[in-house]
Structure formats: structure tokens, C-alpha cells
Design brief:
By secondary structure, this protein is mainly α. It has one domain. The chain has helices at residues 6-30, 33-43, 79-86, 91-98; strands at residues 55-59, 62-66, 73-74. It has a three-stranded antiparallel beta sheet with strand order 1-2-3, with no helix packed on it. The protein starts with 5 loop residues before the first helix and ends in an 8-residue tail after the last helix.
Length: 106
């Protein structure tokens, strides 16, 4: 058995990300608006890893959220794209490419 190549790994990572995106959309659609608001209030500004409060920290012109309990660092929507644009051939651009939303083939 041979090890998959980079292109094949990226393909499957994108496929997995798309499945998770669709699952989240289905879950969101099935929840009532009141339940969505309750969940947001319950988790807003909380670390998804340990549940402690997140704090806004300025970093390279961006505001990131940092948990000082577990040292988790979290980016808001759009922030990863800004980091990736700063280094077009860097690791962050490679990571971002894995999670780009591609329209399904018809």
C-alpha cells in the first residue's frame, strides 16, 4: 500500500470539511431560533477546549481570541484568510486551501 500524495490528502480533507459544513447547516436548520440563541449565549466568548473565558488580543493587525487557561488561540471568520494573504506561499495558505468552500460538481 502506498502513502497518499499531497493532492490526494488535500482532496479528502476538503471532502471531509464539506461533509462537516453540510452537517452543521442541517443541524442549524433543524434547531428553533430560540434554541440557537440559547446555545450562542451559553458558549459566547468561551473556550471550546476548556470552557474558560476567551479574551481579545491584538495580533498583527487582527483581533484574535485567546484562552489564558489552556493557551488556545482562536480566529474569527475571515481572520485566517487575512493571515494567509500575508504569506501567499506559507503554511496558513495551505491550511486555508483545505477548508475552502467548493461548489459541488453537477
Amino acid at each position: 500500500m502506498t502513502k497518499p500524495g499531497k493532492a490526494e490528502e488535500e482532496y479528502f480533507a476538503r471532502e471531509d470539511a464539506e461533509k462537516l459544513r453540510k452537517l452543521a447547516a442541517d443541524q442549524r436548520a433543524s434547531l428553533a431560533q430560540g434554541e440557537l440563541e440559547r446555545l450562542k449565549a451559553l458558549h459566547h466568548k468561551r473556550c471550546p477546549s476548556c470552557g474558560m473565558p476567551l479574551h481579545d488580543v491584538a495580533f498583527r493587525g487582527l483581533t484574535i481570541e485567546r484562552c489564558f487557561n489552556c493557551n488556545g488561540t482562536f480566529l474569527a471568520a475571515g481572520a485566517l484568510e487575512k493571515v494567509a494573504r500575508a504569506e501567499p506561499n506559507g503554511l496558513m495558505n495551505d491550511v486555508l486551501r483545505l477548508f475552502e468552500h467548493h461548489a459541488p460538481a453537477k
